[in-house]
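for the writeup, i need someone to sanity check this before i put it in the appendix. the sequnce is what the collaborator sent (i think, or maybe the updated version? ugh). structure was predicted straight from it, no edits. if anything looks off just tell me and ill rerun, i have time this weekend
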Amino acid sequence: MLWWLMGSRRLPLKEIVPISVVLIVIFLTGVIGNACVCVVIVKHPGLHTATNYYLFSLAVSDLLLLLFGLPNDLSVYWHQYPYSLGIVFCKLRALISEAATYVSVLTISAFSLERYLAICHPLHLYTMAGLTRASRIILILWIISIVCASPFAVYSEISYRDYPP
């Protein structure tokens, strides 16, 4: 009777399999590619530039989004109810996924602004250039993103239905 009220526990296989293949390919290429970016930037001191700090931040946010968001989405396609990962993971996934999305957008915006300043006002940017400034900006972006994403963690919940009602 629960199936009649809530529908099938999973989508039809003809829909799930292609979606799963695409998601797994995205997951693997995303994790490998972003991990390589992080490792290369960390291991080579010559790559410790403000631009690469922004790229590192973007790679970390993409990794977090891939690691916390995509496996959860894939599991929901295969097993829609009941949610088996628990309330802690539900809230943590909501916080990390939203914060990673926000910081990606903010990082790209900050990087674009820095490139604009480098092109249009090169002397002004040179006087305030440095890795410390880029690091501070990135830290501020992460803090803003986590603060703005925190309501998602607070208000995310799992709704269970008892049967019979």
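The helical segments are 2-6, 13-43, 50-78, 86-120, 122-128, 131-155. The chain has a mean pLDDT of 81.
thx in advance!!
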